Amino acid sequence: MNLFKSALLALALFAQPAIAESPRLFGSIGTQLSVNSAEAQLRYIGEPYFWGLQPVIGLSMARNNSGYVGVGAAYTLRAQDSGLFARFTGMAGIHKRGSGRNMGGPMQFRTALDVGVTAASGMEFGIGIDHRSSAAIYRPNPGLNTAYLFTTVPLR
Description:
Layout: H1 2-13, E1 15-17, E2 24-32, E3 37-45, E4 54-62, E5 67-79, E6 84-96, E7 107-118, E8 124-133, E9 144-154
Antiparallel strand pairs: 1-5, 2-3, 2-9, 3-4, 4-5, 5-6, 6-7, 7-8, 8-9
């Protein structure tokens, strides 16, 4: 874990904010960690519109029939001349329980950290982790974490 924190700190120190980001389609395959259920996720990440924030629309579906649909914003930091990047995403949305974890209610917030590399083609590849919770709107508020591998495809 210390290696991950060190790499993230180094990336942040040598990074530049998203300026010429293009819209992209994000796809991931991962696992809901505490309930061990496979999950697939799609996101549309738009062009930056305000202070480098990119609009995001996302949806996910897990093997346990839980799902999520949300909207929010992302911010991308890119390391100069290396292709490395980190993207922070925050969304508010609706959670469907299925046979998954009881999240307390339908309104849930999802935050994600994606770290990866951009290929010469503009495609991105990497790993990510996200967290969902109601921010204490409901009781219980157990939260749900997902770890995943992702790729993105530029839409331009």
